[in-house]
Amino acid sequence: NKNDMPSSSSTVPCQYRTGKTLGSGTYAIVKEAIHIKTGKYYACKVINKKLMEGREYMVRNEIAVLKRVSKGHPNIVTLHDYFETTHNLYLCFDLCTGGELFDRICAKGNYYEHEAANLVRTVLGAVQYIHDCGIVHRDLKPENLLFRTKESANKENADKEAEDVMIADFGLSRIMEEEKLQMLTEICGTPGYMAPEIFKKTGHSKPVDIWAIGVITYFLLCGYTPFDRDTQELEMQAIIAGDYKFEPEEYWCNVSPTARSFVSTCLTIDPVSRPTASEALQHPWLASKEPHFVKDS
Ligand code: ADP
Ligand code: MG
């Protein structure tokens, strides 16, 4: 799209030509972009400076976080390049052609337990890495989990799908200063995935990512989210109370007690008692690669 080409004198962006839109969020549109010289494809997050006015620090923060975690783990999107023009900021990522986990769950209805466990194990491994880097992601959800290739969606590649999943969107991430026992208090995230302590404003940190993993796992297993309510107020109350059930029964009858136990530990209301990423990886549901069976009734 020619109209998207920056008009400034900066020559760097002209090394890319943008194409179709891959996705969009509050401040950004993500477009496919081709590097003209090499013919290589990338995903270019285009952020309108005017829309971001007064919040430029958010993009600077996103870049700082990406510099810390990108390339350090195979399941985290890689920031390839960034630059700006008069009107826009551009973050250029390696292209994930496989789309969002969100769309894959919707297409399948839900995941088989064994495949869900493989995905969650991989994502948690990447979360553990992010946390070890001193970063809390704060916006983990299936829309921000991408797949590197389209092929991983094919049935015959089911056992390989997990290797392909990538954590994206560090727009709400924070670098934590551990020595100060720093806590965050601003309310942010996507309501259905937000931990109780975020709403309570009692201070939050890495445990919010584990809560989100609990919500994502629940979603993978049954095809809907645990705290979905008619209004945001009711949703928030349900989250604060930890009010969810493995119901209706017909969606959960094939899900093992071990899987349910994993979801429940991630959805521990008290963030101090919630498992860390490495503790969650030790849970029997993830620790053994053998499938878990539902007891015969
Ligand atoms: P926002 O902060 O606006 O949510 P994201 O970084 O999550 O921005 O990007 C928005 C959407 O763009 C994602 O949900 C995804 O569909 C798409 N997208 C982002 N990064 C990539 C990428 N590297 N490859 C392919 N698609 C991407
Ligand atoms: Mg996003």
Lay out the secondary structure.
Elements: E1 16-24, E2 28-35, E3 40-48, H1 56-69, E4 79-84, E5 88-94, H2 101-108, H3 113-132, E6 135-136, E7 145-147, E8 165-167, E9 174-175, H4 196-200, H5 207-222, H6 232-241, H7 249-252, H8 257-266, H9 277-281, H10 284-287
Antiparallel strand pairs: 1-2, 2-3, 3-5, 4-5, 6-9, 7-8
This protein binds adenosine-5'-diphosphate and magnesium ion.
Overall number of strands: 9
Bound molecules: adenosine-5'-diphosphate, magnesium ion
* Terminal CA distance: 59 Å
Flag low-confidence runs.
Answer: 1-11
- Separate helix tally: 10
Helix content: 25-40%
β-strand amount: 15-25%
Going across the major beta sheet, what is the strand order?
A: 1-2-3-5-4
Find the structural class using helix and strand composition.
Answer: alpha+beta
- Using the CA coordinates, give the radius of gyration: 20 Å
The general outline is globular
